[in-house]
Design a protein that fits this description.
alpha/beta; single chain; binds 2-phosphoglycolic acid
Length: 271
């Protein structure tokens, strides 16, 4: 029986200095043996730009290290921005694009996310594309319309041959952060199945099923394993609960426990 490969990642947002990032990463490396030698599992950490190299130095490839954002241009007069060549030079394992906080606080549009996805792929970077409806969309029952728009625009022009490099994170805006509440399993199952159907329309089913679809938004040890019981979900994207390496590992541990693994699907997904 093939078990699908699970991804467990954390975006630190605007947290952690270089010293703090180094200490976290060392502790994470120390804790990783407790997770077992599981080839069907991949951890990733997305620090602020300033700490990427420090984290990579500690990780030495044991977990992936990503960037939180990127500009769509290769270079130019964009003060404060970071380009794809800059990230490629650092050999980051992925670049997160279109997080709800980028959309909310920095007016990041679907078409901006699309340009970033196109540039990331052109530079051989793996885009982790975040999509998800806001509370008002859910209230009016238009979450599918919002997600379809986000997915179709973000991935417009992506060739099926490149689409296998994508990772999608479903992160409803209303579930993220201090004021958020974790989504119910049935909701996550329906929406992630819908995302998979959109990917199938765009790229065909073989490619669509090779694209990991993660869930993120107020994930804790309480609900992590439960969220993975739906075979559409290929992993978890954790914020606050992973700001501490112990609790990040606890989240992963409860998901890898035999009972949880038994309950999750049998489809093979290899990012
Ligand atoms: P949270 O963040 O787990 O703190 O809600 C999730 C995210 O923004 O990815």
């Amino acid at each position: 029986m093939n078990q699908k490969r699970l991804l467990f990642g954390t975006n630190w947002k605007m947290h952690k200095t270089v010293d703090e990032a180094t200490a976290y990463s060392k502790r994470l490396v120390d804790l990783m043996p407790q997770l077992g030698t599981n080839n069907n599992m991949q951890l990733f950490v997305i620090p602020p730009f300033t700490a990427i190299q420090a984290v990579q130095q500690v990780s030495q490839g044991r977990f992936w290290v990503g960037a939180q954002n990127m500009h769509w241009s290769e270079w130019g007069p964009f003060t404060g921005e970071i380009s794809a060549p800059m990230l490629r030079e650092l050999s980051v394992d992925l670049v997160e694009l279109g997080h709800a906080e980028r959309r909310q606080h920095f007016n990041e549009t679907d078409s901006a996310v699309n340009r970033k996805v196109e540039t990331a792929l052109r530079f051989g970077l793996r885009p982790l594309v975040c999509v998800g409806e806001e509370a008002a969309d859910k209230e009016y029952g238009v979450e599918r319309e919002t997600i379809a728009r986000q997915v179709k625009i973000a991935l417009n022009g992506v060739k099926p041959a490149d689409a296998g490099n994508l990772i999608i994170a479903y992160e409803p805006g209303w579930a993220i952060g201090d004021t958020g509440t974790v989504a119910e399993v049935e909701w996550v199952r329906d929406v992630t199945a819908f995302i998979r159907a959109l990917l199938t329309d765009l790229f065909g089913s073989e490619v669509a099923f090779s694209i990991p679809v993660l869930y993120g938004g107020s994930v804790t040890t309480q609900d992590a394993a439960q969220l993975l019981t739906t075979s559409e979900v290929d992993g978890l994207f954790v914020g606050r609960a992973a700001l501490d390496p112990e609790s990040f590992c606890e989240v992963v541990k409860v998901c890898l426990a035999p009972a949880a693994r038994h309950a999750s699907g049998t489809q093979t997904v290899s990012p």
